[in-house]
Amino acid sequence: MPPHRHSAQRVFTNTSRDVGDVAVAALRYAVAGRIRVLETDVTVFRSPLLRPPIALCYGAVCHACFALGVGMMVVMMFFGMSRTLGVLEALWNWIANAGLLAQFPVMHSFLLTASGRGVLARLAPPGTGATLSTTTYATVASLQIFALFALWSPSGEIWWQAEGASLAVMTALYGTAWLLLGKAMTDAGLSLQTGSLGWWALLRNRKPVYPKLPERGLFRFSRQPIYVTFTLAVWTVPTWTPDQLVVAVTLTLYCLIGPLFKEVRFRRIYGSAFDAYARAVPYWLPWPRPGCSVPRDAETPDAQ
Fold first, then answer.
1. Whole-number Å distance between alpha carbons of 258 and 262
2. Which domain holds residue 197?
3. Would the pTM of this model clear 0.85, i.e. be above it?
4. Do 18 and 148 share a domain, yes or no?
């Protein structure tokens, strides 16, 4: 090979090596810089000056979404899912409705898993994810509820609509079901159910203190009074349509099956205390169990 070719090859090899070294050095610098930026971000978000506005902002968004979602659900079911913000063409409406129905139980359950908790942590600023997890969970759930009831595309068919005295009776039953649901949520720990537990703890720079195993109030008669009273609400509406029937059946099945996974988690958290409670109180319908008594709250640990 001619000498000039050897020289060119050496130059090319040396140049390639230099470029590679520069690229590696640049990559290392970028990674190190990114790590420093992330560390700085975490430090900034943990600053006492930023903690209150972050907590208040997340709290305001959470409770606004909660009110919007629950309000939309109450109104839309009152009219039997016959009202909507828009209507799709036939066939597409049921496909969209099926997706809306599926997203709530699937995502609602997923966010309670270890992977789901990781997703919730990433929805909050660095260093605040664990504390704000109940707040972000309630926010996502509220948005899911709003999407289900606001974006539902009704069939346009009404089977039965209460009038006169029957309207008064059904409205009273419907309102009572929601009041009982509010009572059950209060018995379970209203701060946990509404998401205020997380942002309030962050505001005070403390770890969230979770409620003990609920055993009082409506929990003396059923281990799942929230699901029971919600099911009562979906079946006491004063307007019945094919849409309401589909929603009622689907959500009732979720209310029957979903708590089984919740109880697996409760057994892991509370251990023998939950086993004793489960022996004394029925799973769903409040059938009395002679000879059984509910254990005292003081014997149950906190769900940290």
1. 7
2. 48-299
3. no
4. no
pLDDT digits 0-9 by tens, 118-166: 899 899 999 898 999 999 999 999 999 999 999 999 988 999 999 999 9
Do residues 171 and 238 share a domain? Answer: yes
pLDDT in tens, 80-131: 999 877 777 777 788 889 999 999 888 888 888 888 888 998 999 998 989 9
Phi-psi region of 91 (alpha: psi -120 to 50; beta: other; left: phi over 0): left
Give the total number of structural domains in the chain.
Answer: 2
Burial of 120 (0-12, 13-18, 19+ CB in 10 A): buried
Domain identity same for 128 and 255: yes
DSSP secondary structure string for all residues of 135-203: HHHHHHHHHHHHHHHHS----S--SEE--HHHHHHHHHHHHHHHHHHHHHHHHHHHHHHHTHHHHHHHH
Q: Is there a domain that residue 288 lies in?
A: yes
Residues 6+ apart with CB under 8 A from 200: 55, 59, 191
Number of Cβ within 10 Å of residue 116's Cβ equals: 17
Q: Looking at the structure, do residues 27 and 164 belong to the same domain, yes or no?
A: no
- The tens digit of pLDDT for each residue in 230-286 reads 999 999 999 999 999 999 999 999 999 989 988 998 998 899 999 999 999 999 988
